[in-house]
Amino acid sequence: MSLKNDKFPSSAAFDAINDALSNEADKKDAIKQGNAVFAFNLKNAAGETDSWHIDLKNKGTVGKGLGEKPTVTLSLSDADFGSLVAGKANAQRLFMSGKLKIKGDVMKATKLDPILKKAQTKAKL
Fold first, then answer.
1. Residue among 45, 34, 38, 39 nearest 10 (CA)
2. CA gap 40, 95 in Å, rounded
3. Considering the chain, what percentage of its residues have pLDDT values greater than 90?
4. Whose CA is closest to 115, among 57, 68, 44?
5. Is 21 exposed, middle or buried, given 0-12, 13-18 or 19+ CB atoms closer than 10 A?
6. Residue 125: per-residue pLDDT
7. Whole-angstrom Cα distance, residue 125 to residue 122?
8. Would the pTM count as exceeding 0.85?
9. pLDDT tens digits for 93-111?
10. CA terminus-to-terminus distance, the chain
11. What are phi and psi of 44, to 5 degrees?
12. Best CA proximity match to 74, nearest among 124, 113, 47, 118
């Protein structure tokens, strides 16, 4: 089942993250590093919003919706998320410029970087 939504081009990254977590060793490592449920609210150019989550607390899975009790929720545009996953944008700069909003445990948001990097190598977005 694909997590991609055609109205949100960068949502293909969630499939890449899911693929990166399909390896049992990588999954265990990601859960150990992340130890949180990361929720994403993306807004596309048309002003529509959709959400996904990465559970790195219990299951090591990626899914649609905000997930169960997200530890941290990141809200940003589809384009900025695409740039972030591709390594073309810096999360700290996006946050400081107001393009990335974080609700919940801000420090946990910093644990997401290695997981996004893993997706980059899998997908070559």
1. 45
2. 14
3. 72
4. 57
5. buried
6. 44
7. 9
8. yes
9. 999 999 999 999 999 988 8
10. 19
11. -90, 180
12. 113
